Amino acid sequence: MSEVAIGDKTYWVGVNDRTTDLFEGLWPIEGIGVSYNSYIIKDTKNVLIDLAKAIKTDDFFDQVTNIIDLDKLDYIIINHMEPDHTGVIKTLRMVAKNAEILCTPKAVNMLREFYGISDGIRAVKDGETLSTGNHQLQFYHVPFVHWPETMVTFDATTNVLFSCDAFGGYGAFQGTIFDDECTQLDFYTKESLRYYSNIVAKFSNSVLNAINKLSGLTIKTIAPSHGLLWRKDPGKIVQLYKKWAEYSTSGGEKGVTLLYGSMYGNTETMMNAVAQGISDGGIHPEIYDVARTHVSYMLPSLWKNKGVVIGAPTYEVSLFPYMQAALEKAKLKTVKNKKAIYFGSYGWSKGALKKVNEITEGLKWEILEGLEFPGQVTPELYKQGYEMGKRFARSIE
Could you tell me which CATH number the domain at 4-249 has? Predict the structure, then answer.
């Protein structure tokens, strides 16, 4: 995409990435891609805000030089040090030799550790302002959204908030960068929740602190480093992030995520019974086969829904490995305050339910029932599973 004006002498100069399969080497984005959003303020002093991943260096430099020669840059603002936002910095520094890098104090050390850059850097204080001529920039430290060195930059002249990873989402642009011109808002909203649950959710308290800190600003456009720019309704993405962050303590909304895995079909048969009971109890469960679904797609459902159903067999006196991996990732992302039930088949020994309790200990999960059964699902067991699912659905508020 070519550069796009987003305000007075302010331009988007980002790049789309449709070739990376795993964001952060972990999260699938094959087929949808991601954008690396960067911005230029062309003023008496010229400013470049956020950068791009190293594999996009040529494309990124082409974008920037459509607006300004690289050697004419006065400031490079690093809101966040992660390499998808800073990967081009070593090469950029060779060309923009006189540009001063502005970042938080903690980012100063990271620039040296990541890229061997230790000069031409100035740490900015929380609340510090910078005049570029006709624009007044303000810097706000927002630690752990989602690294400790993170800040955001607010242009008080155009009321644009350059929020870096805050308020971002997966998905390369499909012809437009703005919310009001996008015909696929549902897609980008869904991918923002997946991004949040994959990347940011662990730091939900910090997200709420940042939202509160920035609440006094009059924001007309939110310009994150990934995903849509919100100019028609910037409050929408802020309210979504706030709602998602509050799930960390509330446990989520009325809904059920059903995770299951099955070796020979017995646990899957019970899953069908439990799912039927949940549905008849008034909730349509979101069902995921843990052996065939990447955890990236399970995490948004786990984060959002108050109820969790775990259906997996005992495997070597422990939990079916794919289920164990899914629950361990949920634990890593601090998916807390859930109501849950368990069911699963076993051969010569139980053990899966015990492992479920071990993994979820400390996450404040209330495991209401557990049903471990040997071998196949009899008609009586099927009925038990159905009734358990129905009771569970009715317990979710």
Answer: 3.60.15.10
